[in-house]
Amino acid sequence: MKKKILAIILSSIIALSLPTAMIAEAYDILPVDVGNYHRYNNKKKSSSSKSRSRSSSRSSSRSSSRSSSRSRSSSSSKNSKPDSSSSRSYSNYSGSVSKSSKSSIDLSNPEDIVITVGAIIFIIVLILFFTKTCKGKKKSSENNSNRIIPYDFTPQIAGFIQQNDTNFNAGQFLEWSKNIFVTLQTAWTQRDWEKIRTLEKEELFEQHNTQLQEYIRLGRINVIENINVSNAYLHKLVIDDNYEHLTVSMFVTMNDYIIDEKSGKVLMGNKKEVFDTIYQLTFIRRKGIKTAFVNGAIANVCPHCGAAVNSASAGRCEYCGSIIHTGEFNWVLSDMEGVEDGFYNDNRGIIILNNNQN
Fold first, then answer.
1. How far apart are the first and last CA of the chain?
2. Terminus of the chain with fewer CB atoms < 10 Å: N or C?
3. Signed CA dihedral, 343, 344, 345, 349: sign only
4. For residue 17, with 0-12 CB atoms within 10 Å meaning exposed, 13-18 middle and 19 or more buried, which class applies?
5. 324-353: per-residue pLDDT in tens?
6. What is the pTM assigned to this prediction?
7. What are the percentages of helix, strand and coil residues in the chain, rounded to 5?
């Protein structure tokens, strides 16, 4: 369909780019058996018949010899007229041919040059535009077709965990993990990393905090907004001697750009550009820990005073003020990465490691 539209556009441009003189010349040089010649010949025939009528009335009132003479003269005149008109018509036709044979487009005429060059430039621009558009769509289509989609093992993993942790619910855990992701991104933009202290494992927390302090030192803000998690599922569960590692695949769209702290000027990225990314969030907890809920949400229990603490709170126990490292008592984020080229799409689902085996 697009090829047909393009062909019509190009054909129209080429037709419109021809000088109007060529169209007039094309009309003049029509063959004698169509159009102009027959119209011209019919008019001459009509005028001949009128002349013949007038000649007849005159001859009846005059002498027969003069009438006869006029008749012969009129007759010879009549016979010569078609030849004369015919010769005129052919003369016009041949003149048109010789006239048009000079040149269709006179390159010495500035108007012809402007029209021709303008048409060529316009056609080139159109071709480049359609080529770029088609390439962009092709590239986008190729990227989508080559996109790596992690395997979904939610039912298998949920059933396995519930054998030892009856409180575990895949739906609730996935909603909790989405909330964690949004909380992390919001804290990153606000440059207040203390809010997520209980959400990340100590090593990951320190790594992210160091990166954030560098942004603050440079006077830059990494703005992450319009976050939307369209889908999330359990991709992989790895159990070693001490911990359970649960990986969530999360499909996210968001705006991500960097601005100057003082002027607000965009330094990197684009405010309107939307990133469509798949993230792999790996949560970790010590083996044997059971899922705890507070008001229907996954929560931590303070190891110092025993109070229940929401995982998305300020990172401290609201009752005794102690810092809570949730990896020992509940799920905590240990790794977060985007799915890119080279990603290994593990299809095992559940992996149990026993490092004590020889």
1. 66
2. C
3. negative
4. middle
5. 655 566 888 999 999 988 899 999 999 999
6. 0.58
7. 50, 20, 30
